[in-house]
Design brief:
Helices cover about 30% and strands about 30% of the residues. It contains eight helices and 15 strands. Bound molecules: adenosine-5'-triphosphate (ATP) and magnesium ion. Pathway: Amino-acid biosynthesis; L-histidine biosynthesis; L-histidine from 5-phospho-alpha-D-ribose 1-diphosphate: step 1/9. One of its GO terms (molecular function) is glycosyltransferase activity.
Length: about 280
């Protein structure tokens, strides 16, 4: 049995649970429980505060965990990272009050900066050769300038709307983060094997997220031209339609590429184009 630690409630929780479910791993959740066991995979899930997850994994209380890179690196535990997971993307940024005449990082020399990420901030200031006074606070960082605690803040940003609603302006990007899978370095062979199975499933889910299945109809004389436009997993499947002289082409395309080729497909004579999601993809 492998023990996975995820955030109990917060910005990582929902997507962490979704990823595990998409891997075909079933379990019953209850807001009151602190752990659950999967009914169809040798996995136990522990629900914890996100800050505690790297420490528990390092100590072996949990075997693996899902946490933000910002927390992992702040706690000096980056050696536990196994793989980036592509969700909970955010950045750690420096921000100043909207009316502040900030021009560059040297303007922060000697200033007071409030943050919950003192180590990441210190590393950034050191790299830029700036000395400032870091005030570590555990929450509500964005109100620090308005209550006179600091002239600048360094906090997590995704859309930037929290900064704007607090009259702040983002001026420097200190660190880019996303959710990451972490693992204890000393897993026994049995646990390592379960982790490998889990990673195999995670990869299949991740690959499928970017890929779309595309179906389209084309006159037979255009098949060669259209096939060129479809990069596909291999080459497209071609099936004859009931209507004489027409075929149906099926292929897999990357979502980003799809928008690039759609006009070209239409110009080449493709009709009835369908793009459908893929649930799992094993190559
Ligand atoms: P806990 O109670 O577990 O300590 P928390 O308040 O410290 O929770 P959350 O605000 O839930 O943490 O954020 C957890 C993680 O989600 C952050 O460390 C960061 O990696 C990521 N995150 C935070 N804010 C955002 C956001 N706006 N968009 C996307 N990801 C975010
Ligand atoms: Mg936390």
């Amino acid at each position: 049995m492998l023990r996975l630690a995820i955030q109990k409630s917060g910005r990582l929780s929902e997507d962490s649970l979704k990823l595990i479910r998409e891997c075909g791993i079933s379990f019953i959740t209850s807001s009151l429980k602190l752990k659950t066991e999967s009914t169809n995979f040798p996995l136990e899930i522990l629900y914890l505060r996100d800050d505690d997850i790297p420490g528990y994994v390092a100590d072996g209380v949990a075997d693996i965990g899902i946490v933000g890179e910002n927390v992992l690196v702040e706690e000096g535990m980056q050696h536990l990272a196994v793989e980036q997971l592509g969700f909970s993307k955010c950045r750690l940024s420096l921000a100043v009050p909207k009316g502040d005449p900030y021009e560059d990082i040297s303007d922060l020399q000697g200033k007071n900066i409030a943050t919950s990420y003192p180590k990441l901030l210190q590393a950034y200031l050191d790299e830029k050769g700036v000395q400032a006074n870091i005030h570590t606070i555990s929450g509500s960082v964005e109100i620090a300038p308005s209550i006179g605690l600091a002239e600048a803040i360094c906090d997590i940003v995704s859309s930037g709307s929290t900064l704007i609603s607090n009259g702040l302006r983002e001026v420097e990007r200190v660190f880019k983060s996303q959710a990451v899978l972490i693992a204890n370095g000393g897993l026994n062979a049995e646990k390592q094997e379960i982790l490998n199975k889990l990673l195999f499933r995670i990869h299949a889910v991740q690959r499928a997220q970017k890929a779309k299945y595309i179906l389209l109809n084309a006159p037979n004389e255009k098949i060669a031209e259209i096939s060129q436009l479809l990069p596909g997993a291999k080459s497209p499947s071609i099936l004859p339609l009931a209507e004489e002289g027409w075929s149906s082409l099926h292929s897999v395309v990357n979502e980003d590429d799809f928008w690039e080729i759609i006009e070209k497909l239409k110009e080449a004579g493709a009709q009835g184009i369908l793009v459908v999601p893929i649930e799992k993809m094993i190559i």
